[in-house]
Amino acid sequence: MPDDEASRLFQAFVAQDPASAIQVVERVRSGGVAQADLFDTLYVPAVSFLGGAWAEGAIDEVTFTQASVVAEQIASFVMPPLARPDTGVTLVAGVMHRDHHTVMKDIVVATLKEAGYRVNDLGVDVRPADFLERVEETGARVVLVFAEIMAQARSVARVREMLESQGHDDVVMLVCGGPFAADPALARAVGANGLIASAEGALRVLERVRADVLNGGAR
Amino acid sequence: MSRERSPQVIAAEGLARQGQTQAAVSACYDALAIDDRDAFAHALLAELMLEGDFYDEAITAATQAIELDPDCSPAYLALGLAYDRRGGMWDQSVLVWHELAEVTPDLVTAHVQLGEAFAAAAFEEEAVESWRHALELDPKQARAHYNLAIAALMREGMATALPSFHTAGELDPSQDEFFFALLGLPAEDVVIDSGRVKPEREARLVSAEMLARQEDFFGASELVRLLLDADPADADALALAAYVYLKQEATSEAMACALRALAFAPELPTALYTLGVVYSRWPGLARHAVRVFAALSKAAPQHSLAHVLLGESLLGLQRYGQAKRAYVKAIRLDPACVRARFGLAAVRLTEGAYAEARWEMRRAAYYDTKRQGLFWRLWDAYAEGGEV
User: Fold this and answer.
1) Beta-sheet pairing, A194-196 with A172-176
2) Where are the beta strands (DSSP E) in A74-165?
3) How far apart are CA B277 and CA B59, in angstroms?
4) Do A198 and B258 touch (CB under 8 A)?
5) Which of A145, B74, B161, B194 could be disulfide-bonded to B149 (CB atoms 3.0-4.6 Å)?
6) Which pLDDT score, from 0 to 100, does residue A219 have?
7) Is B171 a residue whose pLDDT tops 90?
8) Alpha-carbon gap, residue A121 to A132, rounded angstroms
9) Which residue in B has a C-alpha nearest to residue A66's C-alpha?
10) Do A2-78 and A90-213 share a fold?
11) How many other C-beta atoms are found inside a 10 Å radius of the C-beta of residue B189?
């Protein structure tokens, strides 16, 4: 398939025929090539042919430019999917009560959202009862608590107490912030199941939580 | 009206410009022994002290110069940089940059620095306003874009910050310099008459590369056409054509030529560079960009920017640990690489290492002002009695 179809796509570019180009793309896709592979298997060789035709003088400068415009129009049809697949995992995240440090929370939450997690961001200065309320509302089984001040880091224990008091013993509580990074024992002391040290670390820890605790499933 | 400099100051200035710091300091003290109310001598001493990392002495000398002449713009620069690098003096730093921005309102760097001082003091909105003002004065101010990217990262995460990183990177003159460094072009420019180039491959290729560096893309394209007419499989000519198209925002043509070049020379750094830049402009092709820039960093490991480009593409895939290693490698190769410093700062922020991130940004500011030769520009303008 690929070379023939890439050649047809190239011909469609040169003929300045976007409709035919789309037809080629659709035909290849329906032939079983995944969206994620269309760019490499079809588009790249066709565009390379175009460069070759121009280099060899088979097409002139104007045709090259016009064919390139068509190639650009078609590009969106062959691009790998932008969004990552939904993990199905819902999280509740927020900065502990009386703490207004937003930076780490914002970076980690954005990273998790981009990676396909459903994050309920409660913002800053979040009371333990608000974590509980949102867990009950959403059925989330993972809570991510941020604290950058020592006193507030210690008070994260209240979130665990609040969850247990309402029978949510199975909720995974992860903590993140300077005091926990400096003293990992503090994370255990407040009843956290895990410690997040960085945005990339958050992805790793959540992956393990998905595999070990949530058995790869949602919620 | 120009300001009079004493012979001792002129001697000190000459030594300082030649990089003879110690002798220049002695000459400054000689000048001050004759006239301790000489603003030039104090300002120059401040710069020299800053050069040697003697921040308190730099602050004292610069303050003295400003007290003697509140229009002494080079002294404000030295004072602001000394406050920033000393650390913990953000309130004073904000005041100094504010003063410098008033003394020389068109000095873009003053607004960028003011923004950085605001950011360090946690006045985020004021910081963003200063950087935006800098961009109004000069839309190509790469450091303002880098700072806005960092601010976006802190508020909305990496996905929002990345486009600003790319914009900043493309405005950064180091990116084009990198391409020509990959070509191995001699530093000095030669005037090329494209109609009189010898009809030999090497002469045509080097002339086309020179013309591309001089941004004479029409002339470069003419020579590239001649090269391809002689050999359509000339990978170097194709890679140069790709770059010329890229510079004219014709990304599909650039991609076509780069892919063709790589068909004949799969590890050709110049073609890898252009293809990587094209891929990095499409959000869906982050993985492809990583692949291409990884190949580039292997093909040209001695160039810090190859690692910077790899680092930036890794940020798009949330592979921050690998990005950090790429940036560290880039900084090891070129400690003055502003773009690598900002990239590393971004990674450090994702690790919650704020102080380290700020430190990297301060180093970037230091190297950036040094690269611009800003002190001497302000000095010359001050001596002439005018503005920069």
Assistant:
1) parallel
2) 90-95, 118-121, 142-146
3) 43
4) no
5) B161
6) 47
7) no
8) 13
9) B253
10) no
11) 10
Closest approach of A2 to chain B, Cα-based (Å): 16
E strands of chain A, at which residues?
90-95, 118-121, 142-146, 172-176, 194-196
CATH 1.20.1070.10 is right for the domain spanning A2-78: no
Average pLDDT of chain A, as a whole number: 93
Average pLDDT, chain B: 92
A51/B260 Cβ within 8 A = yes
Give me the pLDDT at residue A212, please: 80
CB contact (8 A) between residue B263 and residue A47: no
The pLDDT of residue B386: 63
CB contacts of A203 in chain B (<8 Å) are 318
Closest of B52, B58, B87 to residue B361, by C-alpha:
B87
- Residues of chain A in contact with residue B259, where contact means CB-CB under 8 angstroms, are 44, 47-48, 51
> B204-208 — which CB contacts under 8 Å span 24+ positions?
B205/B236, B205/B237, B205/B240, B208/B237, B208/B240
What is the residue whose two structure tokens read 């959540």?
Answer: A206
Pick the CATH number of A90-213 from 3.40.50.620, 3.20.20.140, 3.40.50.720, 3.40.50.280: 3.40.50.280
- Verify whether the Cβ–Cβ distance A47 to B256 is below 8 Å: yes
The answer, yes or no, to whether residue A218 has pLDDT greater than 80, is: no
* Domains in chain A: boundaries: 2-78, 90-213
Rounded Cα distance between B147 and B156, Å, is: 14
pLDDT at A2 over 60: no
CB contact under 8 A, B282 and A203: no
Query: Given an 8 Å threshold on Cβ–Cβ distance, is A72 in contact with B252?
Result: yes
pTM of the model: 0.88
DSSP string, B297-316: HHHSTT-HHHHHHHHHHHHT
pLDDT at position B362 over 90:
no
Could you say which of A47, A68, A106 has the minimum Cβ distance to residue B154?
Answer: A106
Query: Three-class SS of residue A92?
Result: strand
Q: What would the mean pLDDT of B38-57 be, rounded to a whole number?
A: 94
Name every residue in A having a CB less than 8 A away from some CB of B: 39-40, 44, 47-48, 50-52, 54-57, 64-65, 68-69, 71-72, 75, 79-82, 102-104, 106-107, 109-111, 113-115, 176-178, 181, 197-200, 203
Does A48 contact B260 at a Cβ distance shorter than 8 Å? yes
- CB within 8 Å: B260 and A64: no
Token pair, residue B75, equals 């002294």
Q: In the predicted model, is pLDDT for residue B314 greater than 50?
A: yes
User: φ, ψ for residue B301 (rounded to 5)?
Assistant: -70, -15
Q: Which domains does chain B have, with CATH numbers?
A: 1-114+374-388 (1.25.40.10), 176-279 (1.25.40.10)
Is the pLDDT reported for residue A86 higher than 90?
Answer: no
Which residues touch B346 (CB under 8 Å, ≥6 apart)?
A: B149, B150, B153, B158, B161, B165, B315, B357
